[in-house]
Structure formats: C-alpha cells, structure tokens
Amino acid sequence: MLKITQIRLRPEKISSKDQCMRLLKKKAAAILEIPQDQILSLEICKYSIDARRKPDIFYEFSVKAALPHPLEKKLCGKKRPNVSLYQERSYMFPEAGTRILSDPPVIVGTGPAGLFCGYYLALFGYRPILLERGTNVEQRIKDVEAFWKEGRLDPESNVQFGEGGAGTFSDGKLNTMIRDPAGRQEEVLRCFVENGAPKEILWDSRPHLGTDQLTGIVAHMRDQIIRMGGQVRFSSCVTDLVQKDGVIQGVEINGREILSSEVVVLAPGHSARDTFLMLHGRNIPMESKSFAVGVRIEHSQKMINERQYGVDCAGNLPAASYKVAVRTAEGRGVYSFCMCPGGYVVNASSEQEMLAVNGMSYQSRDGKNGNSAMIVTVTPDDYAAFQKELKAETLPEPLMGVSFQRALERRAYAAGEGKIPVQRFEDFQNHVKTTAFGSLRPETKGEFCPADVRSIFPQVLGNALEEGIHLCGKKIRGFDQKDALLSGVESRTSSPVRILRGEDYQSKVKGLYPCGEGAGYAGGITSAAIDGLKIAEAIGAKYSPFLKKQTENGESR
Questions:
Q1: pLDDT tens-digit profile of 323-348?
Q2: How do strand 369-378 and strand 129-131 relate by DSSP bridges?
Q3: Which CATH code is given to the segment(s) 99-287+498-552?
Q4: Where are the domains of the chain?
Q5: Nearest Cα to 182, choosing from 314, 93, 69, 75?
Q6: Residue of 7, 239, 370, 411 with fewest CB within 10 Å of its CB?
Q7: Predicted structure pTM score
Q8: What is the pLDDT of residues 187-209, one digit of tens each?
C-alpha cells in the first residue's frame, strides 16, 4: 500500500464525500502515472485546510492507495517525494503481568483519563471499579441545563463534575501536540469511533466532536465497561485513602464505605479541590504548578471566517478557528486557548458563590459567535504576590493555585451578581463598567449581564490582557475591536497542582497511580485519554487479570 501526500482539492469542487473520493482517486492516479483502475482501493489518512494564500484556499489530503503488489514496488522505486510505502502503526496493549490482585483495580474519576484507563482494563479482563462523585451523563445533562436556565447549582453534578469530566461540556477538541510512537493517539481516536464518533475524526487534522456527540459516546463507553465485567458507580466521592506502611489498601467513599484495593488510579479532574486538600492531608507528595487565567473573548464568527478565509471565500469550508500567542513588554505570555468556532461561553461553576467560564460548541459549530480563552500565564510566585490584593484564603503551599483560582472566581461572581459578567473591550480598556452592548451580543449558556470584568483581576494581569489583545489585533485584524466581548473568569485552563509520580507512574504510596489532567499530566481530552492508557498499560504489565478469590475458587475467564 502506498501513501500519497499533498493532494490538493478546491473546496468548491467538493459537494459530497463520494465526489471527493472520485477526485482524490483521479489525482492519485495522475501522480502515480497509472490508470485509475489500477488503484484497488483508496482511503483518506489525513486532511487539512491550507488558507495561507487566501482567497486561494485548498483542502490538502494524504491518502493510502492499494495497488497490485508488483506495481507498488515498482512505483516506490521512482523518485516521487510525496509517495512512500504506507506503514500501519498498530497499538499493542502489553502482555499481562503475573502478580495476582486480591481485589479489582479502583479508578477515581470518569473524565477522559479515568474512562480510558477503565475501558482498556475492562477490555483486557481486569474488571475495574470506576468511582464518579457526580451523576451519569444523562442526569448530568439535566442538572447542567437546569443550572444554566435557573441558576440552581448542584456542587456534585455540573460542568466540572460528573460522568465524562469537564471536557464533556466543551468544544470536544481531539487534537494534541503529543507525538506518541506507541500509537496511543490513533488508538484513542479509533476507540472514540468504535463508540459512536464519526470516522472523519480519524483523518481530520483538527478533529472535534462537540458536546452533543461527546455525551452519547461517554454513555456508550460506560455501557461497554459494564458489559466487559467492570463496574461504574455514581455519587461515589472518594473522601479518604486507606494506606498502610506506604502501600495503598483502598479508598473511603462518601465518608462511610471502605472499598479495598491494592491498585487505585487517581484521576480526579482539575477542579477536585476538596480531593487535593484531602490528599495533602494524607501526605501524598504534590507541588504547585503554573497555569493560566483570563477571559473568554467573543467575536462574530462571520468576521473570523472572513479574516481566516478571505471575504470572498467560497465552497464547503467549516467555521474558521484561530490560534494566537504574543508576549507583552513585561515578558508575560498571553495566548488563545480552546477556541470554539460557532460556540458559546458557558457558566462552568462548581462551587457556591464562585463563577468560572469555559467555551463550548456543538458538533455543527453553527453559533453566531466564535469564542476562545484569552489567558495569561501565572506562576507559583504570582499566587503569593497577589494573595493580599485578592484577599485569598490561606491554603498549604501546594494548593496556593487553588486559593488564587477561588479568589478570582469569588470576584467574578460578585461582578456579575451570580451571572456571567461581560464587558466590551473598549470599556475594559477604559476601566469602566459596561452598561450596554454594541454590535455584538453575548452567546452564552447561563444568564449574563454587563459588568466590569477588569475589576476581577489584579492590575498586572488586567494590563497584560489588554496589551495582549491589542497585539493579537496586529495578527488578526479586528481582534481588538471595541465591541469584542470579554467574559470572566477563565480560571480552569489546567490543574494548579501536580500529584507527583515516579517513572513507574506510582506515587510515593505504592499502588496509587496519579493520572490525567487533574493530577497535572495532561492538558485536554486526548492527552488525558493517552495518560489513562499509559496507566492501564502499567497496571496490565504488572498484574494478572485474574483475582485471588477467582483462582482460589477455580474460576477462570
């Protein structure tokens, strides 16, 4: 099989998938200088949009083509820089270890890290028990929608907590900067497709699912885990660890039930602040880490499309996205994060009288506005510097980032009187409260009100955001327009702590495996899922899928 890259098609020429495949086959045959009927089959490997020379825009494809074997060998012998032998990269779960467990592995959290760890342990016979403090995704959807409509927050079932994790109510981006030679990235996408995602995510250079698709996929993965012998328990918050002589023995659930296990995967998500506090109290090694805070910035999606594709762009082009990064005169990095084309700013709060925002899109990305986080990097040194100005609570040193987040979220809640506070960029620059919106109206999930968003931030960060947005306006014309809308506060970009682990993925407490974004080892859906796979592999390579009580009873699987 041959791989052919750099096949370009104009968007306006593609009216259907069948037509696209016909055009690709014709182009592939021309590149190979063979009749089309010599191509036995053709599949897309990857595609992207090349808009560097707008309005001259192309889709650029890589394909794999099956030819009669002698012909493949002959064509590879010719010097064609964009033709090579296709090499399939197959993911392999490790051979099972020999140590027999007394009890099934326990996984704390059902975000992407915990879900994928549990899925693959179940797939290979380990019968894991997944514990989720929130509700199942079906109930969670109802709770979140009730919060957005009525302002009634359930601290255990919201945008942050519940089956699927925080990424369930997001744009559902699946791209990652990770380069994994073991093929885990492809395996994660393949698993999503196996559980209901469209096949297009396998070859899209910027795959995404959208909240409406993610919810169904998460539910299907849970059902598969149960079918394969695992358990998924909801409303089961881990309130303590059971350990003896530096070895994990199990977990306490909801302050009353003890669940025994010598393997506990800790995948709590980046907003499990009470869990971080509990872990610190149990002397689990942790450290404070840098992350970023800021606002959600909204523009007209029509404007973004025109800037990215050109005013007269034609053809079947999706809602455009962007990615910008600048450095202020004082050296602070300001950058866009989690851009949601045709999306919504959502109230993503998880604690009473605190307010955080995030971005969300549906799969169609057909909303009027596009939004992204515009954020500025903050370090552990900043937490201490801003402590007094923000009147932040005093927490142990590893949790100072949590204290910083909470202080900003309290100020955001006060600025919007419980609603999402929104400010025009012109008013943000002038340090005045917005009283009326201009040409752009907020597209939100959850009530909003005009407010003074700048007052949420320490002066240093407010200045950095203002300067950074102006600098981005030099890269994307109109980015710093006066009617651009800023909502606050974007404070959950990543975990403010890292739960330390060794090369064997275990904490100092043996048998305890910190995992995923909340533990400080991932930064998105796919990277968290990959980390979950790594933990599943580490457990699989060490332990047998059999349990002691099964072997003692003579049972087998």
A1: 999 999 999 999 999 999 999 999 99
A2: unpaired
A3: 3.50.50.60
A4: 2-85, 99-287+498-552, 291-490
A5: 93
A6: 239
A7: 0.94
A8: 999 999 999 999 999 999 899 99
